[in-house]
From TrEMBL:
Component of the ubiquinol-cytochrome c reductase complex (complex III or cytochrome b-c1 complex) that is part of the mitochondrial respiratory chain. The b-c1 complex mediates electron transfer from ubiquinol to cytochrome c. Contributes to the generation of a proton gradient across the mitochondrial membrane that is then used for ATP synthesis. Residues 1-75 form the Cytochrome b/b6 N-terminal region profile domain. GO terms for biological process: mitochondrial electron transport, ubiquinol to cytochrome c. This is Cytochrome b. It comes from Pristiophorus japonicus. GO terms for molecular function: metal ion binding; oxidoreductase activity; quinol-cytochrome-c reductase activity. The chain crosses the membrane at residues 6-32, 44-65, 95-116.
Amino acid sequence: WGQMSFWGATVITNLLSALPYIGNTLVQWLWGGFSIDNATLTRFFTFHFLLPFLITGLTLIHLLFLHETGSSNPVGLNSDMDKIPFHPYFTYKDAFGFSVLITLLTLLALFLPNLLGDAENFIPANPLV
């Protein structure tokens, strides 16, 4: 995991530093410098821990506010005539789709774990070698 974290931090550093005008500042702000060391990995792990919570929070805010009030209508026309209320239809639809997806992924992982893998990456153990 350590080697993958170094690789990930290096890729992120290269991508951010390629941005014109603000790349150097972003790298300095994100990692504290261009060197990849223990402090960088600590920040890397911190961002990886916090990012799912940030995405979940932004998703909930999106669901609470945008779908409650609708999007902006700059023309001012009445567009409520053909709309379906978000709740309960889309809430149940999203929950059903999520449960079907999780069920299919669970079945795939439990019953056919090597289906999506590369055959050349898997070499059975040979105790005679």
